[in-house]
Design brief:
The protein is an all-beta fold and 148 residues long. The protein is built from one helix and 15 strands.
């Protein structure tokens, strides 16, 4: 999936009715169905997935490889690979992503900032002469217009 060799599994859950204050870091996967008041950041070096359920909310910055938002986020979002915004997603903050999937009904109040990557290097290029753009040729008419 998009450069990630294996889909990380959700190993930790912040359940409905649970409230966490302060920054959270996680490995592999985290699902939030409760409330987090602080940043939620995946530790680097391994693929990561962050899922915010419909009842979940985060007030703080979010950073992970694959981010799925079904609830609400107030703060900047960084999805290094894929950002999925489900129909009930509400994001108030700037959003940076490599690939975006957005369902009808999702709302973003902030800037969308795609993280552009250079295209993969192609096969060796042909000589320069063959790649030069061709000038359009003037149309020609072989008939003689002065004939009776």
């Amino acid at each position: 999936m998009l450069g990630i060799k294996r889909q990380p599994s959700v190993r930790s859950v912040i359940g409905a009715g649970m409230r966490v204050q302060g920054p959270c870091t996680f490995l592999d996967g985290l699902q939030i169905d409760g409330t987090v008041l602080g940043d939620v950041v995946a530790e680097g070096g391994q693929p990561s997935v962050l899922v915010i359920g419909e009842a979940g909310s985060v007030e703080g910055a979010i950073s992970a490889d694959h981010v799925v938002i079904g609830g609400s986020v107030v703060g900047p979002v960084l999805a290094r690979e894929l950002l999925e915004l489900q129909s009930r997603a509400r994001v108030q903050g700037d959003v940076r992503y490599k690939t975006l999937e957005m369902q009808q009904g999702a709302v973003i109040a902030g800037q969308l900032q795609p993280q552009l990557t250079p295209p993969p290097s192609a096969a060796p290029a042909a000589p320069t002469e063959s790649r030069a753009p061709q000038e359009p040729a003037e149309p020609t008419f072989d008939g003689d217009l002065d004939r009776p």
